[in-house]
């Protein structure tokens, strides 16, 4: 079930903006009266940190960013006396935005509010990177609030994709360069071509493929296909769409190759372009990369509306002093998308998605970047239970929908007092097949196909839609622990709510390397039976004192919270 038609988060932010305006008309926050000693030390470190983060090497612009953070901190500290510079709540971010907007309206030489908020986001990133963050809620949530304001300041309207005549859509898809290159790639592969053990085309064949694709030859010989951006992207897209099948020695036409041309070609090409869109708008999980993703996604999103993003706004952002290196990176990625052919710069200087491509582009648009979705501010209550274990071992957890699966893994490790010593995977069922999400280490050992993704690329909220949905968590493929994650409820996130809360639970989780479900059953029996032949051995293995009792039904919720740090 899609969330793309749910009410926009923008309404809530609009209401907040009205409240800020009302406060500004009645109460001005002066900058005075705070002890700045702690902040002074932090700001000196922050200024030294900026160049290390690929920040523009301009001392004046760096100083402007530092001054903006200093002003916001002073203002928030005056309005909220309990504020500390290493702790920022959502209320404090709201107060900072309030002050930044007031200064922009009242002072001719003030920084634009968007730049001041961007400076605050950078400062939070600095606190996290240098292990100085002490906030009660996740810094990702706080940075997300800053980024949401920045992206909202770029504007946008609701997407309405009209039905497209099939012949018009087919003609539009056939004109997309990235799909044309897939045509050439499959013709060039023919029956088969040799590949390296890691699944890339052999380097000796790359010049011939570049010539077939009409891509300029690099000045130096390519040592690996993955080092050429365009070739790597086409290859990975073809693999993910199952247009090609890769063995340890050769690449062959994949299961979807038969439907690439012919009666089913429209469906196959539409889904392939949707996959290309998703790849282009989703990178790794770092805050900076997600910020670039958000900017590029907003450009594409507005290209689907009647108010497209003007190309000269990138230049305006630089002229206004928004000096983040993410801006040129976002602009460069937009240019790559235009080269791929599913975004164009029209005669008015606006970025637009061609009408015939809009169904495919909207299908592939990542839910996490959809401003019409309420998923990012949603908390999900789940009940997690170990399969096959008696007495039952279960936990009830309330968790932010935006939490990526690699972090959900850490939450489950804390919930079950495990040591993160083994491989893991998440699994969902969809349309008769299993979709798996693996860690990087598991990716290296598993068979990867179109239904396999990295845990860094998906969030819990993207895997579930309604109460009753189930995600399976597998841990330690030797012992074979299987945990069912059942959705119980969705609810809005409360102000200052942590991203994870352990509500309750029951049962002691099996110890690491105990031998799976049968090993745990034998352990419980042995440690509680003094006549059992392995009684002393297993108690010593578990570090239990000779006379201590062992209750497999016990669960310490406070201890679980301490393990997670909440």
Could you explain how this protein is built, in words?
The protein has helices at residues 10-26, 37-52, 59-79, 90-106, 113-129, 139-152, 166-174, 177-189, 206-213, 229-240, 265-280, 287-302, 312-319, 326-340, 358-364, 405-415, 440-445, 460-463, 516-527, 535-541, 557-564, and strands at residues 193-194, 244-246, 250-253, 309-310, 344-345, 350-352, 378-386, 394-400, 424-430, 433-438, 452-454, 470-475, 481-492, 500-506. With 566 residues, it is an alpha+beta fold. The chain contains 21 helices and 14 strands. It is 45% helix and 13% strand. It folds into 3 domains: 10-152, no CATH class; 158-373, no CATH class; 375-564, Roll (Structural Genomics Hypothetical 15.5 Kd Protein In mrcA-pckA Intergenic Region, Chain A).
């Amino acid at each position: 079930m899609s969330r793309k038609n749910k009410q926009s988060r923008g309404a809530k932010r609009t209401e907040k903006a009205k409240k800020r305006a009302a406060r500004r008309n009645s109460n001005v926050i002066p900058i005075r009266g705070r002890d700045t000693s702690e902040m002074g030390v932090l700001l000196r470190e922050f200024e030294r940190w900026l160049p290390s983060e690929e920040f523009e090497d301009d001392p004046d612009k760096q100083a402007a960013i530092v001054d903006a953070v200093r002003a916001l901190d002073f203002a928030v500290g005056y309005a909220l006396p309990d504020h500390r510079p290493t702790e920022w709540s959502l209320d404090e971010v709201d107060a900072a935005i309030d002050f930044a907007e007031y200064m922009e309206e009242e002072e001719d030489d003030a920084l634009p509010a968007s730049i001041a908020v961007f400076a605050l986001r950078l400062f939070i990133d600095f606190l996290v990177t240098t292990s100085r963050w002490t906030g009660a809620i996740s810094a990702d949530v706080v940075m997300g609030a800053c980024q949401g304001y920045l992206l909202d300041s770029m504007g946008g309207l609701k997407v309405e994709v009209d039905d497209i005549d099939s012949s018009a859509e087919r003609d539009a898809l056939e004109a997309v360069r990235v799909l044309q290159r897939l045509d050439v790639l499959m013709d060039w592969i023919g029956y088969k071509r040799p590949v390296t053990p890691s699944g890339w085309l052999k380097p000796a064949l790359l010049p011939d493929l570049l010539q077939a694709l009409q891509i300029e030859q690099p000045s130096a010989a390519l040592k690996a296909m993955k080092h050429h951006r365009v070739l790597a992207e086409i290859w990975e897209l073809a693999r993910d769409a199952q247009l090609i099948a890769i063995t340890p020695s050769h690449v062959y036409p994949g299961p979807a190759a038969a439907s690439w041309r012919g009666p089913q070609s429209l469906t196959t090409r539409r889904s392939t372009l949707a996959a290309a869109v998703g790849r282009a708008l989703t990178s790794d999980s770092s805050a900076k990369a997600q910020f670039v993703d958000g900017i590029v996604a907003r450009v594409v999103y507005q290209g689907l509306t009647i108010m497209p993003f003007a190309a000269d706004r990138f230049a305006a952002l630089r002229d206004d002093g928004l000096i983040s290196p993410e801006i040129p990176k976002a602009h460069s990625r937009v240019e790559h998308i235009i080269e791929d052919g599913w975004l164009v710069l029209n005669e008015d200087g606006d970025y637009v998605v061609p009408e015939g491509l809009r169904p495919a582009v909207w299908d592939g648009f990542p839910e996490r970047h959809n401003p019409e979705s309420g998923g990012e501010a949603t908390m999900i209550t789940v009940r997690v239970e170990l399969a096959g274990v008696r007495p039952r071992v279960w936990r009830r957890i309330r968790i932010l929908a935006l939490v990526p699966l690699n972090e959900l893994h850490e939450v489950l490790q804390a919930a079950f007092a495990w040591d993160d010593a083994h491989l893991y995977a998440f699994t969902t069922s969809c349309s008769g097949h299993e979709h798996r999400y693996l860690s990087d280490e598991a990716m290296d050992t598993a068979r990867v196909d179109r239904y396999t993704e990295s845990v860094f690329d998906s969030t819990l909220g993207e895997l579930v839609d309604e109460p009753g949905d189930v995600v399976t968590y597998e841990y330690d493929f030797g012992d074979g622990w299987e945990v069912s994650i059942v959705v119980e409820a969705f609810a809005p996130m409360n102000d200052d709510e942590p991203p994870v809360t352990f509500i309750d639970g029951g049962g002691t989780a099996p110890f690491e390397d105990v031998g799976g479900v049968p090993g745990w059953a034998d352990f419980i029996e042995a440690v509680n039976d003094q006549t059992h032949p392995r009684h002393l051995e297993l108690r010593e293995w578990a570090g239990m004192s000779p006379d201590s009792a062992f209750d497999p039904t016990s669960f310490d919720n406070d201890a679980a919270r301490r393990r997670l740090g909440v």
